[in-house]
Amino acid sequence: MPKAIGIDAGGTLTKVAYLDKSNELVLVTFPSNDLQTVKKWIIEHPDIEDIGVTGGRTEQLLDVIKTMKSIHYIVEFEATLKGVRFLLNKEGYFFERSIITNIGTGTSIHYMEGNAHIRVGGTGVGGGTLIGLSALTTGITDYNNIREMAAGGNREGVDLLVKDIYQGMDTPIDGHLTASNFGKVGITKSTNHQAEDIIATVQGLVGEVITTLSIQYAEEKNTQHIVYIGSTLSNNEHLTCVIANYTRTKKHTPVFINDHGFSGAVGALLNITEYTPV
Ligand SMILES: Nc1ncnc2c1ncn2[C@@H]1O[C@H](COP(=O)(O)OP(=O)(O)OP(=O)(O)O)[C@@H](O)[C@H]1O
Ligand SMILES: [Mg+2]
Question: Is the CB of 11 under 6 A from ligand 1?
Fold first, then answer.
């Protein structure tokens, strides 16, 4: 049983990281709207002595667990960058400079150089937008249903591509790029679309907005690699492809890491332990 754990209480999900007996990282997720389950889990692990905490819902989490153990707070962006640097190195990546785009409920974008980092910007378009817009347009609210449906959807009848506008002419930019997300609907007056296709298009919108912004920061900072993290990417091959393809089209290199959702929790854990991977 772990003596120390890291917790990242985010807008949607609360992530926990700790080391098992063989010094392997173990990662667990809870919904942030049910922090009692986190408390229950801590009670079930009585060996825990120290808890590193981070994330926007830290106060709410502490209301539930504060009297239980020794608590060590670390600011969210510090924890995220500490964690992502560690996870990148663990997977063999050592970038002198990179853009880190954290697609959580909302999206936060950072520039990392060596051991230094700054938050360069962000957008309210994130995982929360993916769920919110999918729910409002199709009635489907479950993240796993959403990502599965997006994978089987087709954006062709909904998005307007550059080549759809420049009919019979050379296009000034790649004709397959999106000219207008959802733009074909207004032009064709077609409002009858399959839920799969609408959700795939929502996911395209979310992915492209985030990628566009990340690329602008990468260019401003003269940085080749963009590391995309956050639980919105979890088992979500369609979104990952949207982001990867668009990043490559714009001549940058997308990087995805295995434990992409847990940078904050790992950073909160590292803040209270001296961990070197086995
Ligand atoms: N089991 C799940 N339940 C709900 N959303 C999920 C789930 N798995 C992945 N997601 C997606 O991940 C997003 C949350 O990502 P993440 O956990 O990185 O954000 P957060 O830390 O909660 O939010 P923030 O950092 O903005 O405070 C959700 O908006 C949703 O799109
Ligand atoms: Mg987060």
Answer: yes
| Residues 88-115: tens digit of each pLDDT | 999 999 999 999 999 999 999 999 999 9
**For the chain, what is the mean pLDDT?**
96
Tell how far the Cα of 164 is from the centroid of ligand 1, in angstroms: 34
For the Cβ of 230 lying below 6 angstroms from any atom of ligand 1, the answer is: yes
User: Which structure tokens are listed for 159?
Assistant: 């998005």
- The DSSP 8-state label assigned to residue 11 in this structure reads S
The answer to whether 76 is a known catalytic residue is yes
Q: For the segment 39-82, what is each residue's pLDDT rounded down to a tens digit? A: 999 999 999 999 999 999 999 999 999 877 899 999 999 999 99
Domains of the chain: 4-79+263-270 (3.30.420.40), 127-158+193-256 (3.30.420.40)
Q: Name the residue type at position 74.
A: I
* Helices 143-151 and 127-138, packing angle to 10 deg: 80
Q: Are 226 and 247 in contact (CB under 8 A)?
A: yes
**110 Cα–ligand 1 center, Å:** 18
Q: How many residues are recorded in the chain?
A: 278
pLDDT digits (tens, 9 = 90+) for 129-144: 999 999 999 999 999 9
Which of ligand 1's atoms lies nearest the C-alpha of 229?
18
Question: Which residue is listed with tokens 């239980």?
Answer: 68
Q: Name the helix (H) or strand (E) containing 216.
A: helix 195-220
**Residues whose CB is less than 8 angstroms from the CB of residue 4 and which lie 6 or more positions away in sequence, other chains included:** 18, 19, 48, 49, 50, 51, 52, 269, 272, 273
Which of 7, 8, 13, 59 has most ligand 1 atoms within 8 Å of CB, for mutation? 13
